[in-house]
Amino acid sequence: xxxxxxxxxxxxxxxxxxxxxxxxxxxxxxxxxxxxxxxxxxxxxxxxxxxxxxxxxxxxxxxxxxxxxxxxxxxxxxxxxxxxxxxxxxxxxxxxxxxxxxxxxxxxxxxxxxxxxxxxxxxxxxxxxxxxxxxxxxxxxxxxxxxxxxxxxxxxxxxxxxxxxxxxxxxxxxxxxxxxxxxxxxxxxxxxxxxxxxxxxxxxxxxxxxxxxxxxxxxxxxxxxxxxxxxxxxxxxxxxxxxxxxxxxxxxxxxxxxxxxxxxxxxxxxxxxxxxx
Length: 277
Ligand SMILES: O=P(O)(O)OC[C@H]1O[C@H](O[C@H]2O[C@H](CO)[C@@H](O)[C@H](O)[C@H]2O)[C@H](O)[C@@H](O)[C@@H]1O
Hints:
Blueprint: H1 11-22, E1 27-31, H2 53-60, E2 66-70, H3 75-82, E3 90-94, E4 99-102, E5 105-107, H4 113-128, E6 136-139, E7 144-147, H5 154-172, E8 175-179, E9 182-186, H6 192-202, E10 211-216, H7 222-233, E11 238-243, H8 250-254, E12 257-259, H9 261-276
Parallel strand pairs: 1-2, 1-10, 2-3, 10-11, 11-12
Antiparallel strand pairs: 3-4, 4-5, 6-7, 7-9, 8-9
The structure holds ligand L263DTV3.
Enzyme class: hydrolase
Pathway: Glycan biosynthesis; trehalose biosynthesis
Protein name: Trehalose 6-phosphate phosphatase
């Protein structure tokens, strides 16, 4: 890996990149979808992966041990919006790890009953809480996401809805997952860190993983960062990449390398593929 721009800002990150270069066939690349592979747009249904994302992943897939996309989206939606259907060697863990898509096969559990309760109660709750115009509910089957990006004042709208949504989540046995102008009510028990750890554990063998790289942009990705940090503490090299934005700063503070949004991530993946080929 000779490109200087692939250098991380931290020693631990550079150790991770060096280990990835040394034994790519046992390395794992973990990637978030929205904000990392796909540019953020106002309407969640219009989000699509960066035009270079699928090509970069397809170049990398035969060079590394595994590529796993870990997303809050339903797995099938990420596959569709990401243009991933024909990619071999890419696994998609959807709904924060509840769902799995691999080689065209989707595995999805039954949603817990609290999800139906939230679906039934949410319209009235939003009306009573004075949800501003532009508030939008995305029903993901296993979770409901309340978006405020299209409100005149997205942050104020989110602040207004936070307490009522937390109360609803508590009543229904769900948890609130905060994100970029969104509060999601989703089942507890999984997060992106759990999903990444489980994914690694199921493939465990001597020398695996040689390194783990994880790229994300939003608060939900911090759990995966924590998993990479734990791996490092156990001697497995890791790299935390932040797909930078002005909306979230918490990841940049913990990242080994910050790149310029999905375009920067795709550029990085392309250079990684060139370096490993
Ligand atoms: O884990 P991710 O792949 O990052 O998914 C997290 C949530 O992303 C989506 O919402 C975000 O992207 C939208 C489209 O760009 C944007 O409009 C919204 O403001 C963002 O919060 C998605 O809609 C959610 O279901 C995902 O859970």
